[in-house]
Amino acid sequence: MPKKYYDCPVDATFEVIGGKWKASILYYLQASPKRFGELMALFETCSARILSKQLRELESVEIIERTYFPEMPPKVEYALTAYGQTLLPLINAICEWGEAHLEKIGRQSIYN
Questions:
Q1: pTM of the prediction?
Q2: Cα–Cα distance measured from residue 28 to residue 71, given in angstroms and rounded to the nearest whole number
Q3: Which of 35, 58, 96, 108 could anchor a disulfide with 64, C-beta 3.0 to 4.6 Å?
Q4: Does 6 have pLDDT greater than 90?
């Protein structure tokens, strides 16, 4: 497979966290690991197929880890890796900007 080249470091960053749900997944995982169902409940308009795809993509670049617990019923949790935690300052800065933007345009986040 040929090496991928980027025009800008921002492109490399958004290749990892771009997508409708990835940054939000990271935002919610910063507090604690979450099960798939917990994540689904946070994203009312996201399908299970898309959420699974976004989680797999984050896992493939070692931003999150998936832990399987062999119990009945089986349990799977998703958590940030140490490498994924390095994205938290960026995710929190994006969150702060978003809050300021919502205030500027006179709207509220549905999550506050």
A1: 0.86
A2: 25
A3: 58
A4: no
Residue that has been written with the tokens 């490498």 in this structure: 83
Q: How far is CA 23 from the centre of its chain?
A: 4
Beta bridge partners of 79: 65
What distance in Å separates the CA atoms of residue 53 and residue 5, rounded to the nearest whole number? 24
Spatial distance between the Cα atoms of 11 and 109, rounded to a whole number of angstroms: 27
19 dihedral zone (left: phi>0; alpha: psi -120 to 50; beta): left
Half-sphere exposure of 109 (CA within 13 A, CB side): 11
Q: What is the CA radius of gyration of the chain?
A: 16
Angle separating helix axes 22-29 and 9-17, nearest 10 degrees: 70
